[in-house]
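Hello Y.,

Per our agreement to keep a running log of every chain we model this quarter, I'm adding this entry. I've kept the format consistent with earlier entries: sequence first, then predicted structure.
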Amino acid sequence: MHFTSREISEKYDRFARWYDLVEGIPDVLGVRKLRRQLLRQASGNVLEVAVGTGKNLPYYPPGCRIIAMDVSREMLNVARKRAAELSMDVSFLLADAQALPFPDHSFDTVVSSLSTCTFPEPLIALQEIARVCRTDRRVLLLEHGRSNREWLGRWQDRREDSFAKQRGCHWNREPLELVRKAGLKINNSRRVFFGVFHTIDAEPGAV
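Predicted structure for the entry above:
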C-alpha cells in the first residue's frame, strides 16, 4: 500500500489530536528514554524533519537553534503549543521531507524520529536529510522497523497492509539498510525491544 505525501498529510491532520495518546504506549516501553539519550548529542543549527507533535523538543540541549518541519499542518500546531509551554524558540515550517527547502550542508544536526516508516519514498527523504547536513556532522535517527526476531518480523509482514492503511506506517521497513543506501555513514546504532526500535548516529559521506 502506497500513499502520496498529500495523503499522509491529510491522514495525520485527522490523527493529530490523538497522536500523543496513542504514542504513549511506545513511550512507556522505553522510547522516551531513547529520545533523551539520542537528542543529547544534538548541537548547533538543528533541523528536525517530521517533527510531528514535538515530542523530541524537551530533550534538546540548551543552545540548539531549531527549525522543525512536518508535512501535516495540524501536527505542527500541536508542536507549536508544546514549544510555547516549554518556552522554546523554535521555527516551524510546513514542508515535505522528500524535497527539503534548504541549500546543501545547511545544518549541524538533522534529526528525525519514527518517520522513515511513513515517508512515501523513504530513500529520497533520507538522501535529502544527508544533503542538508554538513559534512562530518550528525544525523540522529530514532526509528522502528522490521524485527530481527524472525517470528516477530513475519508477524509484522502479515499485518503490514492493514497497519499502513490505518496510520500510513509501514512498520516492516529496514531503517539501517535505507540509511546506508541513502549515502549515510553509520557511526553508531542500537536495536532494542525485540529489535524493533533503532537509534542511529550517522553522518553524510558514505558511498
